[in-house]
Specification:
By secondary structure, the chain is of the alpha/beta class. It folds into two domains: 123 residues, Rossmann fold (3-Layer(aba) Sandwich); 109 residues, Rossmann fold, CATH 3.40.50.1860. The chain has twelve helices and nine strands. Strands 6-5-7-9-8 form a five-stranded mixed sheet, sandwiched between helices. The protein has a four-stranded parallel sheet with strand order 2-1-3-4, with helices on both faces. Strand 8 and strand 9 form a beta hairpin.
Amino acid sequence: MVAAGGFRGLRIADKIVCCKMKIIGIVGGLGPESTIDYYRQLIACYREKTHSDSYPAVVITSLDVAKGLRLVEAQAYSELADYLANEVQRLAKAGADFGLISANTPHIVFDEVQRRSPIPLISIVEAACGVARFRGMKKVCLLGTRFTMEAHFYPDVFSRQGIALVVPDEGERAYIHDKYINELLEGSFLPGTRQRFLEIMQRIRDQEQIDGVLLAGTELPLLLRQDTASGVPLLDTTQIHIEAAIARLLS
């Protein structure tokens, strides 16, 4: 029983037993490998924060990554927003209290999807910016799909906090995008690809004096399973997004 006056002195795990647990909604499938990683990490982070062996309540809707990429490639952003917003509606109907889009590139239409969403959505971009700002970073390299590296949705958010973003050169962007679409999204994580990504990051570190590298593609941490590269911190947007979700869940 909980004494009158609230939860003072209770552990987080005790509060969860006493209260109706919130439900996390995930728009996944963009791609499948990172959605699996999201689910695993959500469980691990939840258990770590609650010091329990229980599980968070999660609802997942899985989209067609090929369709999503076609819409982005065609710059059919209105249709992409419709596609994502419909799935957020599905999550809300399934009982989700708040939601995540478990990929970076679809955040190109995040503001529109959030505007139409019946539940709050946690932005991976805002969460990543908060961590970079907390760590005192002023210049960060942005890695992801070509769509993410060449769009404005990351620079728009980071510039408001005084953080400059730099991207690889045109040839490097083409290489990264090709490997992302044709290997990483297919669940293929090759040593040669990893080595080339590390070389690109080292060149940018040497020439741009960056404070960190933003892994702004949720498959990238599956290729680069490390905290630093060439002495520069790697910001794992998957982990950052998950920690923001668990903080919201337990608030």
